[in-house]
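## Example record

The block below lists the input lines for one assembly entry, exactly as stored, with component labels intact.
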Amino acid sequence: MPNAILAPALTTAGVSASIAAIAQRFVPLRKAAILKEEHLDRRTFLALAAAVSASPLCAEAQTNAAMRIGLSPVFLDDQLSFLNDWRDYLQGRIGRAVRFVQRGSYREIMDLLLEQKLDFAWICGYPYVRNRARLRLLAVPVMEGRPQYQSYLIVPATDKTTNSILDLRGKVFAYSDPDSNSGFLYPRYALMQLKENPERFFARTFFTWAHRKIVEAVGSNLAQGGAVDSYVWETLRLYHPELTRRTRIVEKSPYFGHTPVVARTGVSRAEFDTMQEALLGMSQNVAGKALLKRLNLDGFVAGDDALFDGIARMMRALDART
Amino acid sequence: MLRLHDLSFRYKIPLRSSVLMLITALVVTASLIVREYDELRQDLATTSGHLGRVLANTLVAPLTHDDPWRAYEIINSPFHGGASESNPQTASLVMVLDANRRVFVATDPNQYPMLSDPSRANTDFYELWQAVARHNEPDTRPVEVKGSKSLYMVTPIISDGYRLGTLIMGYSKDAFLPRFFGIAKRAGLITLAVLVLLLPASWYWGQRFAKPLVDLAQSMGRIGREIPDEDEVGLYESKDEIGQLGAAFKTMLRELREKQSLEREVMLSERLAAVGRLAAGVAHEINNPLGGMLNAISTYRRHGNDDPLAARTLSLVERGLVQIKDTVSALLVESKMQSHYLTRQDIEDTHTLVQTDAHRKRVRFDWRNEVDGTLPLPSTLVRQVLINLMMNAIQAAPQEGEVACRVEREGERLRVQVGNNGDYIPQERMEHLFEPFSSQREDGHGLGLWVTWQIVHQLGGEIVAESVPDETRFTVTLPLAEAA
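Predicted structure tokens for the full assembly:
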């Protein structure tokens, strides 16, 4: 994180130099912004940057210079061209540089978020409810008209006999991430409800660290079963039907609150509102709609904490067991 | 059935050379394929060695962290380069076995599910495991399982001296086949092209090589019926075996012909000898009563009786008897007759004796007497031979023709050559030339050559008649030896 490293080095004496550096950094961003419907003109941009960096809270301001948004594989975060377009869109909307931060697991994103190294993050409902006190719910994606999703139990398409998770006893099972609701918490909860011990029910379990890879692992028969986010599965069905075709959905869970976008507690009210407005407003304009279409979402809504009560219940049940 | 053995060399040689070319092509192709296989294996060992080490190192973390998905992604990465399946350098199977020899993860989870015993799915793994169980060096080792369709490259996954598992990469041998077929196809095409180019050459060469043999065989086939002329055989002369064969065959033909003519000569001479013996016997038998009869007539005349009829009759009888006596004495060649040794003058005398006849016919007489001193030969007989031959020559020569006579000493021999340019003696007459009464001339009794032959033979010499148009020549050689 160059900005974090850069920050302590900046002193008042080095202000002018840092202004120049920041301005330089913003030049390519501005070029991108011109392409957007609503962009800041160059003068405003430079003035803003100068104001921020000239303030006494220089170091703090510097870290805020770019909005850091953590992304986790709760959606198809491997579409780099989409992310590029989305970033451009968000920058245009919030009038600030946006930096997406991606990590291999939910936990790393959560750690960064809790250490205040990220401003916002698109995470899973499970880590959200676990850390609800230190996070603020910013937005919830809406899919098929509801801010909810499911956990799908999938098996290889070649498996014609499995009808329930109970048929997978002694098999190899793929989880997505130990901090995933749909890919870990729910299937374990379901097994518990069936009076099975999730630790011993399968001969072997492993994590793929992404929902998309659950589909691949099950499709290639590496795992005889897997739990996947319904949103990811449906999106894949749309854009990569060759992957989903190799799997078969055996069970669908009840609806849970969709993977929320959250803010760390330290984010200012203004920043929170700007960001929320940017996300929620996506369904209001053409560019935003086009991006939502690529995300296979209807839009984002502010969301209600109560959406995640189901996940919280399961978490408590499992926590109590251990 | 036509057997290959019976084929003419004209076909055998091109056929054999074609077979040789094919065998060469096959051997070369086979060695190329073997080399290609070795090279492929070598390349495979090198590339998979690198790959194996890289993969094995990378797989340490997923194995220690018990992360099969990561391992699966790693072992699948070599397949993601878009490498075609037919490339023999691309593994058809990559598998990671854990420390308990169970499948940790494999690129083909259908056949090798996680936690399964791979030898259950593929018996290759029994032997494979035997081969690598004690292989604890962190390098890749090729393992070939007998009867397996795959080559295996095995790399132990070792971290800090502890064996976490084993990486096995399987390479399908079937992927080699298209390459081998490619080589075989190319070699086949080249062989075909070479055959097309070389077949006419080998055909021509075969024909060339076989031709003298075929000619020889044909010429040999004619022997028995006739002796072929040497020029007809058409064998070239050289130092190679066929040339030697040709030379030997020609020598054989020459000797055969010589033998044939010798046999004919012997036969002739035996016939003449037999005739001579018969004639001599008859002559002796006639001579005795003849002498008596002539004595009786002489006695009768001496004791007188003037009966004119008787006298006329006796005279007639006497003339007849004398003629018989002449003929018989001509037949009887008396070689034992006492005679002095031959001198140069004796020979010159004969020349003088035939001069009259020569003049009458106005022939050009080429006389060469090169004898000096005395030769130990009976002069009477030699003179008779000379006179006979010269008289014959003058008679045979045309008016104003030519006659040549040459007498010379040649080592221990006397050689007499008498020639003329008269009509030539045809072959059929030559055979009976020396027989008595064979002459077709009206004058003479035809005993001249016969007597000559007899004399020459009794003296142990030889007489040869040669006759070509415009020249007929008799050559007599007489040995001087024993008399001396």
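The CA atoms of residues 192 and 472 of chain B lie 69 Å apart. Chain B has a mean pLDDT of 83.
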